[in-house]
Amino acid sequence: MRRKRIVKDVARPSRGRPRDAAAHAAILHAAIDLTREVGYDALAMDAIAVRAGVGKATIYRYWPSKEMLLAEAVEGIVRSAAPTDTGTVEGDLLVLMRSTMRMYQDPATPPLLSGFIAAMARSPLIAERIRKGFIGVRRAAMREALERGITRGELDAGMDVEIALDLLTGSMLWRSLMSGESIDDAYAREVVRRVLRAFQPSRPSTALRAAGRSARRK
Question: Fold for domain 80-206?
C-alpha cells in the first residue's frame, strides 16, 4: 500500500510543472474568442475548456479565475507599435493612425473591445493590463511622436500632450463602438490635421521671425 501511494503522489501534476505550449496557447485563444462572442460577464471556464479542447482542471492548474486568465490573454494580443520617425510629426501620426485604423476596420475588433470594456469595469487587474498594454503601447508611440514634434518646433511647447492623445485615440474608439460611422484614411488624416492645427506653435519659430524681419527691411 505504501508503494502504491508513493506512485500515485508522484504521478499527480504539480503546479510548477512546465506548461504544454500547445494547450496553453489554445486556452488563451479560446478566452479571447469567447470574450469576443459572449462578452466578459458570460465568459465561463467550462466553455473555455471545451473550446480549447482541454479539461477544466488544466485551466485551473495555472489560472485560479477567469480574471487571471483573461489578463494574461490580453497581454498575449498586445503588439508593440514599431518606432516611427518620418521626419515630421504629421507623417509620424499618420503612420500610427493608419495602423490603428486597420485594427478598427477588422470586424472582430468592436465586439472584442466591448468585451474588454465590460471586463475593465469589473476587474482592476484587467483594466491595468489593458491600459498599460493593449491601449498603452499605441498611446506611448503617439506620445513619442508628439514630443518629437515639440522638440522640432512643429508643436507648441506648452501643449497638453495627454489631451492631444485623447483626441487622436478617442476619436476612432468613439466611431468604432458608439456612432458606427466609417473609419477610413480620409477620417484619419482629418483628425491628425485638426489636432496639429489646435496645437500649432503659439509663436513663430526663430527661422520664421528672421525671414519676416528680412522681408520688412526690403
Answer: Tetracycline Repressor; domain 2 (1.10.357)
